[in-house]
Amino acid sequence: MNNIPLAERLRPQKLSEFIGQNHLVGKQGVLKKSIKSGLIPSLIFWGPPGVGKTTLAKILANELKRSFYELSAINSGVKDIRKVIDEAENQGIFKKNAPILFIDEIHRFSKAQQDSLLAAVEKGTIVLIGATTENPSFEIISALISRCQVYTLKGFDKKDLSSILQNAIQKDKILKEKKIVIKETEALFQISSGDARKLLNALELIINSIKTKKIIITNKAVLNSVQENLALYDKNGEQHYDIISAFIKSIRGSDPNAAVYWLARMISGGEDPKFIARRLVVLASEDIGNANPNALVLANSCFNAVNLIGLPECRITLSQCTIYLACSPKSNASYMAINNAINEVEKSGNLSVPLHIRNAHTKLMKDLNYGKGYKYAHDFKNNFAHINFLPKEIDGTLFYKPGKNTKENSFKDFLKKRWKNKYNY
């Protein structure tokens, strides 16, 4: 038993033992009602790591007395799915007694792999429970989502984490034999980031590192023990945010060497390459924008390539895109422009659209001067007509300020020629 991790020893077997997620397992929780009725639809559990997705799937199978199959999308394929479905069909178990197929990290399945589940879910051959840390709307095909209920699980709050700690000390057979005093919890809670598994792993590390009979857990003891032993890169914890921050800032700062280093740290640590690719698409607009419009094109192509080929080969594409973006001229003018405009909307409210740029869909609208005075730009020299497009209350307001780079300098010259002194470029 000593070889079994604390988090696994304490994994709840019944719904009554589960701590947190009251919106799902509380008195009026949907999962509690499902167990009571004996019926359960196919489900997608969406939430951060260590919040009980796998545990709840196993509890449902236990309490409903269903056969339970478990696959991981990281190392399973269509062949494995087909094998489970064939076993379910051969058992003749349908509808109410259908076995549960739990797929961890289901967002990592390709479209073809997800498609292979559709018929069995539709017929009720299996009850699918998928677990994902990514937004199902983006990562799971719509046909599969439409056949499942999506439930969101939340990171554990301090009250839940305190209950989990006390439960561990009071109920675990090994910990009950030790004299453990939890004097401070701030560091433990910060390290766990709402992840129960990480909390219990940290607790176990600390207890094993203290050799005295009485184990007093303080913030200092936590930092001394846990920081030395936890993985160098935790793709779901604080390191995740620190390293992606270093990565983005290195590209923004035009340092391709540092950017590639932080990219390597993420890839070696098991980060989802699609997460990295999404961040590159955002950066291409936020930090480069119209200083190099091709940056967004390349970043979007990188994202598509990552989806198409996956690891390990997509590391090359990520490296290429990272270096290109780091070596591109920088401008946050588009980012600032939309922020400035949103601030104005929040300040001035819903100002009326000027009549001359409204469409006159009906005779009444035409009689009310909708569209009167509008000049069709293509009827004029240089395809430009000098009219007002902003509400009169903010006419002349400058939201977009071109950055100081070759491309946006050309934008500035263009706008000065067209608008003269209306906007202060």
Short description:
The protein is of the alpha/beta class and 425 residues long. Helices cover 52% and strands 8% of the residues. The strands form two sheets. A five-stranded parallel sheet has the order 2-3-4-1-5, sandwiched between helices.
Order of helices and strands: HHHEHEHEHEHHEHHEHHEHHHHHHHHH
Distance from first to last alpha carbon: 72 Å
Number of helices: 21
- What is the strand tally? 7
Task: Supply the CATH class of the largest domain.
Answer: Alpha Beta
List the domain count as a whole number.
4
User: Strand pairing plus helix content: what structural class?
Assistant: alpha/beta
Side-by-side strand order of the widest sheet? 2-3-4-1-5
Give your account of this protein's structure.
- This protein folds into four domains: 21-152, 3-Layer(aba) Sandwich (Rossmann fold), CATH 3.40.50.300; 158-229, Helicase, Ruva Protein, domain 3 (Orthogonal Bundle), CATH 1.10.8; 238-326, Zinc Finger, Delta Prime, domain 3 (Up-down Bundle), CATH 1.20.272; 352-419, post-AAA+ oligomerization domain-like (Orthogonal Bundle).
- Helix content is 52%, strand content 8%.
- The chain contains 21 helices and seven strands.
- It has helices spanning 6-9, 22-25, 30-37, 53-64, 78-91, 111-123, 136-139, 142-145, 158-171, 173-176, 186-192, 196-209, 219-229, 238-252, 256-268, 273-288, 294-309, 314-326, 333-348, 363-367, 406-419; strands spanning 43-46, 68-72, 100-104, 127-132, 149-152, 179-182, 214-217.
- The strands form two sheets. A five-stranded parallel beta sheet has the order 2-3-4-1-5, sandwiched between helices. A two-stranded parallel ribbon has the order 6-7.
- Helix 6 links the parallel strand 3 and strand 4 (127-132).
- Helix 9 crosses helix 12 (196-209), helix 12 (196-209) crosses helix 13 and helix 17 runs antiparallel to helix 18 (314-326).
- The radius of gyration is 28 Å and the shape is globular.
- Residues 228-233 have low confidence and may be disordered.
